Amino acid sequence: MFAGRYLWWMLMGIGIFMFAALSLDYITWLTIQLSGCGDMAGACEPTLRLISSVLKPACIWTAIGVLFMTTLLRLHTLSLIWFWGPVVAAWFVASMPILLFLAADAAALTRPATLAALPVALLFLVAFIAYLMLALEESDTLPLAASVPLRFTLRLTAVYGALAGAAFMPELSRVGGTLLDMPALSVLIAVAQPYLQTALTLGTGSMAPAYAVLAAFIAALAASLLPHAAPQPSRSAIMLRRLRR
Fold first, then answer.
1. What is the pTM of this model?
2. pLDDT tens across 98-144, in order?
3. Which one of 19, 30, 74, 145 counts the least CB within 10 Å of its CB?
4. What separation in angstroms does the CA of 144 have from each of 7, 75, 137?
């Protein structure tokens, strides 16, 4: 999936999500007012159930599915799916609770407490999605492959972001055990998460190290967009060319 098509589908997914989060409540109110079902007790219940229990969840999950599949297709086009695919999937899973919360109460996004509670995995995901919107295939160098130190920095910080998403997702133990029908897995995740949090925050209990790694990740993404000199051929390669001549 090339940059223009990727951008179009991402905007479609975001538009569907915003429609479900912001507009469906007003559509529900308008439907009740026009139908006049409010005059009879319980007459509006089928309409409310249809919109809130069927239409809104369908729009939200459709939007998340579009965003996820579009990102994977973009990675496949850029030949980055094998490493970045699992990382992006981990970011999406860690961001799911806050996305569902914002879909239920979009006004919460304007509250400072909600902004402060945004998971670091969501910030990694937003930065990476913004990077993928650029026309990376038109450059001479491969995306995210400007140099070995830069690739190492990007991958290390990305893995940190995925681990931080798993460590600071309270619902992970319940979801993991429920989906796989393994209660022991829920217990294992619940026990391991505090140790992982301590390791990722360097024992400080603060999110400052996570935000520092996020800043390094964004800086590495920006550095990969800069023009880089082509690598010089090695001495053995030069000698081999001379022998062939």
1. 0.83
2. 888 878 776 666 677 677 778 899 999 999 999 998 877 776 556 77
3. 30
4. 19, 11, 11
